[in-house]
Every structure is written in structure tokens, then in C-alpha cells.
Amino acid sequence: MNASASPAEHHIVVCIKQVPDTTDVKIDPETNTLVREGVASIINPFDMYAIEEAVRLKEKHGGRTTVLTMGPPQAEAALREALSLGIDEAALISDRAFAGSDTLATSYTLARAIQKLGAFTLILCGKQASDGDTAQVGPGISTHLEIPQVTYVRKIGSFTDGLARVERMTEEGFEVLEAPLPCLLTVVKEINEPRLPSLKGKMRAKNAKIRMFTAQNLDCEEARLGLKGSPTQVIKIFQPERRKGGEILHGDAEELTDKLVAFLKDCVI
Amino acid sequence: MDYLLNEQQVMIRDLCRQIAEEKIAPVAAEYDKTEEFPWPIVKILAQSDIFGVSIPEEYGGLGGGVLETCLATEELSKACGGITLCFAASYLGLDPILLFGTQEQKKKYLPDLAAGKKLAAFAITEPSAGSDAGAITTTAKKKGDHYVLNGLKHFITGGGDAEVYVVIAMTDKTKGARGATAFILEKGMDGFTFGKKEDKMGIRASSTRELVFTDCVVPQENVLAKEGMGFIVTMKTFDVSRPGVASQALGIAAGALEAAIKYSRERIQFGKAISSFQGIQWMLADMATEVEAARALIYATARMIDAGAKNVSKSSAMAKLFASDVAMKVTTDAVQIFGGYGYMKEYPAEKRMRDAKITQIYEGTNQIQRNIIALQLIKEMAK
């Protein structure tokens, strides 16, 4: 799968995911899966930073922005929210054929849709989704599209002459990297402070036309979609056993030493 | 109570509520303490198009009316009645331009005000001319194609931070009230400077300064309406702006009520939440009833103005009078429900009480509002 050539003007694609509001999560005790019915859905919080960064890059460098998501029809609400925040266009990938997609199938499907959107300069994703926490879809898309990727980006410095200079967060500090455009970046929350929607944006979002992608119009290989295209199998979901409470020993140093030695002997170390 | 707001009004209310909760509430205490002007909040409101709610679409606004300004002011004031003034006082400053501006004046000033790039302010009050507006001494002498202003305005909300000012000055002292004229001034004009900044009891996140005019040259085209119409401009402006002050009072009261209900459910005394005591319950019930009555009066007045009603002074004065008295009472009762904690600056109850007080005073004291209402009642009966 080869990436399209760079367009004349910047085209930034933001991939987002609609997730359950994690402040209100319930688990079905029978199936051990998330109860999604009646739970408010929000844009994955990390994706909000990707949306904001796309809008800022557009404000600074011009061009256009497109938001893309794969999900059930209700995911349209997430796209409209992105539009109200300043994104120009939206596309929804929705089809029963995509149900059960793991990160491999999801990134494959998203990559196909991005190719359908036409030439692009940059793809932005949040560093990971707050429900699955895999952080695999962004890198997966770049692999399918055969374009460079930089993960955990905390700053996009220069963004010109076919090159993006970015700062990538690491555990020790940060790296300064340059990537040729088009490329894919996943961003961390340190990158910006997302704005609130605007009234004009909300009104535009309400009436905006959303492009629809299905298994038919994406020209995908069927075997790579949904459950069939997902090597990840969920064997069992269970709640880890609760750890028993610890024991706090009291007394002066000498007493404590005796008690601790006795305790450790009991544990048969 | 359902006020049957339309889709755009609900959108304005909900977005302002979100801004109030997420952006204003966390910083309200800090601005109250430092008295700094809340520029970061101005930027957020501007980015969300809030400054344009009641400016016609042709000037970059959203085309709403007085009700839209009221909804925004109420929601923002729930979090901080002081910070809200960066928005509400700008509307007081731009209302006369909306009402009386020529096409050119509107084109020149409204787009930047709608975008929140600039703020506006209104200036009539002087040290010796408060309620007695006829006593103003700032003069404007005509010299060829311009006027020369001399004098001092004080207690001007937004003074120094706003860019666009509507200033009332006497062009002909011999004509009394009919000798006043409204001018549009811009920050930076020669001879237009700012005096001391006031240290206030409440609404401390808003700036209140003196405006000083020393041979300030104002071009003829900056006259708003006509020479001699200054007081009509003022009265008509207050007719549409008083529901805004009322909404600020309403928001402060509603915020205090909500905080009091929440606190009464958490505060345990004699082994029970204090919300289980009838004495507290009856206070909350009275507070809620008064807040709702104020809201109903404000919305009805705003809708009447937006529908084009001619004589709105009485309703407008009633809304301002009633809502501000409710705000003072409700915030005082909220402090009472918070008890000792309510008196401490660590809790926001006392701040709301300080913020509420000004709403009984500015844009016409509540005594002046009663004069307006009574005068209208007598006029109506005499017809």
C-alpha cells in the first residue's frame, strides 16, 4: 500500500475514536466486557490534542483538515464535535463487516480510507485510546501506508519544505526528530491545550455532510476486515483477584525487627 | 422551568455553561485576589464566538438579540460575576453603536467587537454626576470638522482595557439634558488617557478606571446619533442593557444557590446532613423560587425587546431591580447556609455576596429603577 504523493496544499488527516466516558464505566459481570449501552460517548481524550494540533497547523500553514473515524453509526457525533472544533471535513467508516476488528484490521481499514481521501501531508492520532490503551492503531496505519511515523510527539516545530521537525517524548526527556512528509504522528497531551468549540463551528457541524465509507466502497480485501482480519483473539476477560490488605507492624525498632523476622519465617522464604 | 429556547439559544447557553465550569470557575478566586484583567478568558470567549452572540451576522456576529446576551451573561456569571464583565461591559459599550450607529460606524467597529479582538465600554458617570446624569461636566466644543473634549469620567467598567468607548459629553450646557452628545472614542486618541484604577469590594476581575480628556480631538464622524441626543442614546442603551445586568445578578444568585444546595447535602451536623433540617430546606426553597422568578422576568423582558416592543423602560427596570435584589438576598442566605465557612475567603460564598452588591448600584441604582417604574405607572394611568 503506497502513500499518495504530497498534495499542493497541506491536507491533515486526524484519526479519532469514540470511546465510553471513562468517568462512568460499568463492567458486565457475566461477560466481563464493558457495558456500552446508556454510557455517554466522548472523543478519546488523547485524540482531542490531535484535533487541536491539526487546527493549529492549518491556522498557521493553511490547507485543510479531515477527521476520520471507524465505528458504529453513532460515532458520527464524535465527528461532528471535531467539526465544531474547527476541522473542515469528516468521514465515517461504518459497516457490520468491520465489527470485531482488532488493531491490525482497524489500522488496515483506516489506511484504506485515508487513501480514498486523496493526497495528504500529515496524519495525526492521539497516542492511544483510553479504552483499549494499545497505542497500536497509529503506528499500524503508517505501516500499511508505508510512511514514516513518530510516536509520542510533544511538539511540532517546523512544518515546511516537505519536512516535519518534532520533539518526541521519552521517559528520560525528549528526542528531536525530522520526518519527511507525508508522515504519521501520534501526539501526547503535552503538545497543546485543546480549545472549546465555537458557536459558528457548532452550527456548521450540525449541517455538515459526512462522507461515508463501507466495506463496498473502500476496495478492501475482505479477509483483512473485521473479526476475520483480526489475529488478536480474546480468550478470556477476568477481573484480577483483589489483593488482601497488608499488615502494619507497630513497636520500636527492636520489637519490629523481631516481629518482621518471625513474619518472614512464617512466610517460608 | 422550560423557557422554550430555540436551538441556537440552547447552544449558546450550553457552551457558556461549559466555559464557565471548565475555564472560569477554576480561576475565579485567583482573579478576585489579584484584580488582574482576565485576558486569557477573553481569548477563550472570543475563540468560541461568544462576543458575537447578539451582533448581526453582516458584522460577523450570530444575529441574536437581548435574550442571547442574557443567556450568555447568566451562565458565565454562575462561575464569576466579575470575569463575566469583560463580556457584559463590552455589550454595554457596543449597544449604543448597535442602536444608533451609522452603517459606516457599525462596519468600522462591530466586526472587531463581535470577534472579541477589541472590547467596548460606556462612559457617562462622573465624580459629581452619578444618578443625576444631567450634572455631567465633561464638555465637547465643536471646532470646524471636529470636537474637542475636556473633562473626566470615573467608575468606567473596562476603562483602560477596552479599545472602543462611547462617551457622553455636553455640547451645549445651556440646553441641560438636551445639550448632551454621544461620541465614539478610541484608545490612543490624542488627549485621551486613563486615571486611577479603583480597588473594589467585588467584581474585582473587572477593571474600573477614570477616563481623562485633555483637549481630546474627536472627528465629527464619531458623533453617535446626532448632537444633543446623548441622553436619549443613554436611556435607550440602558433599556436594552439592564436585562444584561439583571442576568449577571441572576447568574451570581443561581451559582450561589447551587453551591448552597450542594454544601447543605455534604455538611453534617447533629449526625445528619443539614439539608435534612426544615430551616435550611425552607431557605433553599425561597432562594430557588426567587431565582426562578427573576429568570422569568428577565427572559420575558428580553423577548419583549427582541420582538420590537416600543416602551420597554419599565420592564427593563423591573428586571434589573428585582434580579439584583434577589442576588443580594440569595447570596447573603448562601453565606448563612455555609455558616462560618461561608464567611471565609477559602470558600466562594462570600465572593458572590460581594459581587452581587454592585448589581443593585450600577447602570442606575435600584432607587433610580423604582423612579423609572413609578414614573411609567403614573404616565400609563394618566393616558
Summarize this structure as a short list of keywords or feature phrases.
heterodimer, A: about 270 residues, two-stranded antiparallel ribbon, 6 helices, 11 strands, about 25% helix, B: about 375 residues, alpha+beta, Butyryl-CoA Dehydrogenase, subunit A, domain 2, four-stranded mixed sheet, 12 helices, 10 strands, about 50% helix, globular
Characterise the protein shown here:
The complex is a heterodimer of chains A (269) and B (383). With 269 residues, chain A is an alpha/beta fold. Chain A has 6 helices and 11 strands. Chain A has a 9-stranded mixed beta sheet with strand order 9-8-7-10-6-1-4-5-11, with helices on both faces. A two-stranded antiparallel ribbon of chain A has the order 2-3. In chain A, helix 2 packs antiparallel against helix 5 and helix 3 packs across helix 4. The termini of chain A are far apart. With 383 residues, chain B is α+β, with helices and mostly antiparallel strands. Chain B folds into 3 domains: 113 residues, Butyryl-Coa Dehydrogenase, subunit A, domain 1, CATH 1.10.540; 110 residues, Butyryl-CoA Dehydrogenase, subunit A, domain 2 (Beta Barrel), CATH 2.40.110.10; 151 residues, Butyryl-CoA Dehydrogenase, subunit A, domain 3, CATH 1.20.140. In chain B, strand 2 and strand 3 form a beta hairpin. The longest helix of chain B has 37 residues. The two termini of chain B are 36 Å apart. The mean pLDDT of chain B is 97. At the A-B interface, helix 5 of A face helix 1 of B.
